[in-house]
């Protein structure tokens, strides 16, 4: 059974790129474009991993992450920030909110599937610094 990944992204082009790439690599993709929808799908669909855009309109990705991590039904789901805000302070805020990893936009399409596999196996980049795409190397 393929891993189920919830993508929370309000930009249609980014959503399509990530969804298509993950589908090609055999993942089941669930899509949310807003906070309430993301909370509902995370609770009802129980994804194996969540890719969370941080700069959403309305409820931010950090707020959604905090709510999911505070809910016993969704607290164990790994959440990886997927954002154009890639500075060290942005990483720190993401990890403080409860994100388990960090992927900077623009997305490296060659690296993304490898990074998804890493996070699905329980990998974490909490609090470390690294290259533009992630910090688990």
Annotate the secondary structure layout:
Blueprint lengths: L3 E5 L3 H13 L3 E5 L2 H11 L3 E5 L7 H10 L8 E5 L4 H10 L3 E4 L7 H9 L17
Helix pairs in contact: 2-3
Explained architecture:
It contains five helices and five strands, in the order βαβαβαβαβα. It has 137 residues and is of the alpha/beta class. It has a five-stranded parallel β-sheet, with helices on both faces. Helix 4 links the parallel strand 4 (79-83) and strand 5. The termini are far apart. Residues 126-137 have low confidence and may be disordered.
What would a concise description of this structure say?
The chain has 137 residues and is an alpha/beta fold. The protein is 39% helix and 18% strand.
* Tally of helical segments: 5
Structural class: alpha/beta
Strand content: 15-25%
Helix content: 25-40%
Low-pLDDT runs of 5+ residues are 126-137
Q: Kindly, what is the distance between the CA atoms of the first and last residues, rounded to a whole number of angstroms?
A: 28 Å
Helices and strands, in order, run as EHEHEHEHEH
Query: What is the averaged pLDDT score?
Result: 88
- Outline the biggest β-sheet: 5 strands, parallel
Q: What is the alpha-carbon Rg in Å?
A: 13 Å
Q: What is the number of beta strands?
A: 5
Strand order of the largest sheet: 2-1-3-4-5
What general outline do the C-alpha atoms trace? globular
């Amino acid at each position: 059974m393929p891993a189920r990944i919830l993508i929370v992204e309000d930009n249609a082009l980014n959503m399509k790129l990530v969804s298509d790439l993950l589908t090609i690599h055999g993942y089941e993709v669930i899509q949310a474009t807003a906070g309430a929808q993301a909370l509902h799908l995370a609770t009802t669909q129980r994804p194996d991993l969540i890719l969370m855009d941080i700069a959403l309109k309305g409820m931010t990705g950090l707020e959604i992450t905090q709510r999911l991590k505070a809910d016993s039904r969704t607290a164990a789901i790994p959440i990886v920030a997927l954002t154009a805000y890639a500075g060290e302070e942005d990483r720190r805020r993401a990890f403080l909110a409860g994100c388990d990893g960090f992927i900077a936009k623009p997305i490296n399409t060659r690296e993304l599937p490898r990074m998804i596999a890493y996070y699905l196996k329980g990998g974490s980049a909490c609090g470390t610094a690294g290259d533009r795409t992630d910090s688990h190397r």
